[in-house]
Records
---
Amino acid sequence: MMFSNASDGRLAARAGAAGIVLGALAVGAVALVRLHRHPGGDGRPELTELAPDPGALRYRHAVLPSADATAGTADAIAALETRVQDLASPFDYAELAELYLRRAQSDGDPGDYRTAEARARRSLELLATPNPAVLTLAKLADARHDFRAAIDLARQHKARSASAQIIIATAHLALGELADAAGAADTALAIRPDAAAYLMRALVLQAQGRDAEAALDFARAARVEEPGDLPAAARLRALWGRFLLRRGELAGAARALDEALRVVPGFALATAYRGELALRTGHPDDAAHLFEQAFIASRQVRYLIDQARARALAGDAAAADALRGQVETVVRGELGEGGLGHRLDLVEVLVDRGRPSELPEAIALARQEVARRGSFEARFQLARALARAGARDEASREVQAALATGAREAQLYELAALLATQRGDTAAAALYARLADRLDPGDSGWRKLGLGQPR
C-alpha cells in the first residue's frame, strides 16, 4: 500500500504492460501455492503455514463477565470525574480522555468521542508536555481518517513510547505507506515487545502479502499477552480470524473468532467477521443477522454496508437498498458535520447500489481518497467504481496498483479477472480466477457483489 503521488503514474504505466501483469500474477500464484499442501481426498487444498495453533489461540488468563468490565469502565470514569472537580490534575484528565475513547470505540457513542477530545485538550492545557493525552488526540484523528494529523500528534509525544509508534504505524498502514508502517512497528517492538506491538507488525506483514510471517506474529502476540485487557485480547483474535478468513483458512478463522467471542461475548468486530464467514460459506441470512448484531453493539456503519450485501446475496434487493439508504444518510450527515463519516463508506454504498447517475460522484470521491492515501482499500474502491462506469482501462490500472502493494484479496482478484475477461485476455483472467479461488475456496458468490453492470 505504499505510493507517492510522483510514482503513481510511473507505476500505472508499467503495470499496463502485459509482461508486468503476468509477472505479478506468477509471483502471487507462487506465494499462494507455497501455503498449500497437495489436495486431500476431497480435492480441496489444505492450508499449512497459516493454520493456527489452538494453544496460541486460547486466551490463557481469567475471563471476567463482560458486564463487569463495562461497569468497571463506567465506575472509573465516574470516580475520575469527581476527582478532577476537586483537583484539576492533567494526569487524571489524560486518563479520563483515554477511558472515554475506549468506551466510544466499544459502543460507537459520538458523545464519548467528543468528551474524550475535550478531556484530552483540558489535560494539555494544564501540562503541555510530557503528556500522554496527545496520544488520545492522535487516536481520535485516526478514527476520523485524518491520518497525517494522527502521525504529527503522535510525534509530539516526546517520550520513547511504543504506543506512539503503534499509532504512527497504524496511520501509515491506512495511508498505504507500508515501509514507514513497518519501520514504526519494528520500533514499537524494540521499545516494548508486547502483544500490541506484535499485532501491529502482523497487520503490516499481512498488508505486504508476507502471510507466513504475519501468522507467526499473530501467534507471538497471543503468547505474550498480559492479563486484564479483555477487549484487546478479543480484538487480537478477531483480527487474526479476519486474516485467516481472507486467506481461505476457514476452520482456523472460526476457532479464532469463537475464542474472541468467548473472551468478550458480543464483541462487535468478531461478530462481524463471523458474519463474513457465514457470507463466504453460503449462509447470507445468518450473515445479515450477525452484521445487524455487530451494528447494534457498535453503531459502525461498516456493518450496515455488509448487512446490505448479505441481504442482496439472499435475494432481498429491497432490504439491501433500504440499508444502503440508511448508511448514505448517516455518512453524508457526518461528513457535513466533520464527524466520523468516511468517504470510502459512501463510495461503497454508491457503487454497490450501482445507479448510473451516482457513479460519477462515487468516482470523484474515490479519487479524492486515493489522492490522500494510496492504500489497497482506496484503490480497490476506485477501481470498482470505474469498472461499473465502464472505464475499464483506468480500472485495470488501479487494480494493478492495488496488487503492487502486496495485497492479496479474493475480491481484488475477482475484479482483476472480470476486467481481463472484458479486454479479451483469457490467460490473465484464468490466473486471476485461480488466485481468487485459492483465497476463497467454494465461492458462494459474495466476492462478485458490486462488480456487475449499472442498473
---
Amino acid sequence: MPTTKSAIKAMRQSLKRRQTNLKTLEKYKKALRDFRKLIVKGARAEAEKAMSTASSLIDKAVKKNQVHHNKASRLKARMAAAVKNLTK
C-alpha cells in the first residue's frame, strides 16, 4: 500500500481511470456482440444501424488510446464485409 500523500492520490486516480477505461471497452465490446447477433439472425437493416453504433464506439476507444487504430480498422472492415455478405 502507498504511504506518501502523492502515492495515495496517484492510486485513487489510477483506480478512477481504470473504471472509466473499463466502461469504454465494455461499451464497444457489447456493441460488437449485438452486431454479431444481428448478423446471425440475418437482419440487414438492424445490422447496419448496429454497425454504425459500434463503429462510433470503436472510434471513441481509439481516440482514448484504448484500442489500436489498426485493430479498429480491422474490426470495422470485418463488420462491413459481414453486412455486405448478408445480401448474397
---
Amino acid sequence: MTLKNALQVFESLVSKTNKKSEIKVYQEFIQIINSLEQRNLSAAEIAAIQAKLTAFNLESDPKNRIKFFKKALGQFKKYLKDYLSLTSKGYYSSLGIGLGMNLGILFGIVILSGLERSLGISLGISLGMIFGLIIGQSMDAKATREDKVL
C-alpha cells in the first residue's frame, strides 16, 4: 500500500465516523503519513514503510475498528522509531517523566527514609519528575535538531 493510498483510506475513515476517539487516531495516522511524504526518504525506506502499511491490512473492516487502528498506530510508531529513528513530539519528555517518577519513588524510600515516609516519597517523585523532564526535553531538542521528530 502506497503512502497516498493509506492517506486516502484514513481520510475516508474520518468522513465515515462521528466518534472523536476514532477521528483522533485516524488524524494521527494522516499527520504521520504527511510528515513521511515531506521527508527525503530513500526508495528502500519508502518501500519498507509501504510494506509495513500493507502488512497492517488497513483496508479491512474489523469489528472493533478503534481497537484495531489504535494497535496498528502503536505498531507503526514503534516501527518508525526502530527502523528510521523517528519519534513523535514529546516522546522523550514523557518517557523521562515516567522513568523519573519510578526512580523518584525508590529515591524517596531509600534515601529520604529519615523524613516522614509520605513526605520522602512525594519529594522523591517530585524530584524524579523534574530531572526526568529536564533530561527528556534535552533529548527531544536533540531529536528536533537532527530532524528525527514526526
---
Amino acid sequence: MSDRYIAFDVETPNYANNRISAIGITVVENGAVVDEIYTLVNPETHFGNFNIRLTGITPEQVADKPTFPQLWAEIEPIMGSGLLVAHNAPFDMAVLARCLNFYGIEWRTYAYYACTCSMGRACYPNLKNHKLNTLCEYLGLDLIHHNAGSDSRACAGLLMDYIGQGLKVERFRRRYDLVQCRAKATYI
C-alpha cells in the first residue's frame, strides 16, 4: 500500500450534513506533511444556528466562496491520491458521499479510508475518551477545534504519531460505499 494519506475534515452548514461549508486537507507522504489546503465553501443552502455556533462559519463568510462542484475540480486529484483519513471518519465520509450525490458528481463507487479515532483507541486505550481534542491535548498537538484546516492537520499529526508507535494503518482500512452512503461492515 502507498505511504500517502489524505487527512481531511469537513464542516457542515446544518443538520442535514449533505453539504460542506469548509474543508481542510492535509497530505502526509512518507511520514511528513507535504501539502495543506483549507477553504470555505458556499454550500448553497441555509445555515443552522447550532452549526454557526459550533464552527463560527456564517452565510456571509461563504457567499463569495466556491461551490462544492467548483472546488471538487481542484481537490479531486488530491482526494484520490492516497488513503483517506479522518477523525470519526464515517461522519466525514458520509458528508463527502452525500455532497457528491447531491450535486450528481460521479467519482467512485467506493473509497478506502481509515479512522484516527479507532486507531487512537488501539494506541492509547487508557484515555478517558478518544475525541480529537482529548487526543491532541494528550499528545501536545495544536488544535482549533471545528476549524476544518486545524482539524485535518491534527488528524495528520495523530496519524503520524500512531505510525511512529508502530501501528499498522492497513489494519484499520475500511471501505465506504459512496453511492449508498455507508461503510461496509466487513474489514478489507
